[in-house]
Amino acid sequence: MQGYVKGKPIFTSINNVDNQYPYLTEDLETDVVIVGGGVTGSICSYYMSKNNIKSVLIEKGRIAHGSTSVTTSLLQYELDENASDLTESIESKDIVRAYELGIHALKEIEKFVDEYGNRCDYIKRDTLLYTAKNLEKNSIKEEYEFRKKNGFDVEYIDELDNPYMFDLKAGLLSKKGGAEIDPYKFTKHLLEVSKKKGALVYENTDAKKIEYLNEGVIVHTCYGYKIKAKKVIVATGYNTSLFTNKNFGTKYSTFNIATKPVKEIIGWKDRVLIRDNSDPYNYLRTTNDNRLIIGGEDIDFKEIEDEDIALKKYSILEQRLKSMFKDIDDIEVEYRYCGCFETTKDNLGYIGSDIKNDNLWYCLGYGANGILFAILGAMMLSKLYYNEKDEDMRLFKVNRFDN
Ligand SMILES: Cc1cc2nc3c(=O)[nH]c(=O)nc-3n(C[C@H](O)[C@H](O)[C@H](O)COP(=O)(O)OP(=O)(O)OC[C@H]3O[C@@H](n4cnc5c(N)ncnc54)[C@H](O)[C@@H]3O)c2cc1C
Description:
Helices cover about 25% and strands about 30% of the residues.
């Protein structure tokens, strides 16, 4: 996707991507039209079909080649920032609720895998939030106490009991607080299951104009064909300009490198999902074929076009990875890529209808938990279709920051 993803993404490179979908060659009528064929749109397609709502998904390029091709796919219930840093934007009880919803979304992914098979390298993982700085020990302790008090399964790690190879002054381990997947395989599997349940999927089909009617919408596509539906779901990731001029959050570019498979993963106990407490933070995971991925070094989004900056960031990430895991002596970087990432003041995404237009719905997984928010969004929107109100949707309201 022009400007939003750069470099050579790991997940569309290591997977077989030959299974293409057709482009739209007729007018259609359906219940819901989903615009955007990344992981979010595909999750929406799955939940619509699961709930007997007819849907048509259109993707302007290729399925899962946008942000979905580069997501590190760390699935964690926690938010980008620690609870104590968020209290100006969101009440503590709502942070707790957001954590609980994250756990709920993780279980939904597990249910999908249990029901349809694990074809996306899904693995449940503990997650580690840590600091290598004495100054930040308190911040980790505070977050640990917040979670402990609110009933989450967490463990505090002191520097004297550090089981990892890298320097750690304090750590917070969330037991079974996360999971990892291959986002490309997950997206394709979701669509395969949705299609079997009757969902329609088209790629190379750009939504050009949305016509809003009293009783629904008409989506005009690039070759002149139209899709009439009761609702349109915006699942276009970080580019929503076709639907609104609203500025939803703050855009950054975030950088990732992925190594070739290494012989042995040493000093990375249980292959936990790792995030440090820095601002901007670094995040790390392994893959089932023994690759290491490290991301971070976020900068203002406008700089994504600057190749020199990207090269410097990749080099910093490589040095950091090598210095964290000194005993892994065959670290060799194979993929370098970056992409747009957008976050909000309260670290939550946007789910629900446009404030002025009941037929325009958003499912935007902004923040570090994009994929989990997409799960929650798709579930909530499929209830909304039947006029059932989900109380938790208030947390993700599209106009919550409007004055
Ligand atoms: C380097 C990096 C690391 C990340 N790591 C994580 C992580 O660890 N965990 C996490 O949860 N999130 C992470 N994210 C965020 C993550 O990418 C998102 O959560 C998720 O992949 C976004 O998926 P999406 O489907 O919403 O967007 P996309 O994959 O971008 O899909 C949107 C699609 O809409 C299509 N589209 C746009 N306009 C139109 C139109 N007019 N007509 C038809 N189609 C259209 C686009 O072509 C695109 O394919 C990361 C992001 C980056 C860049």
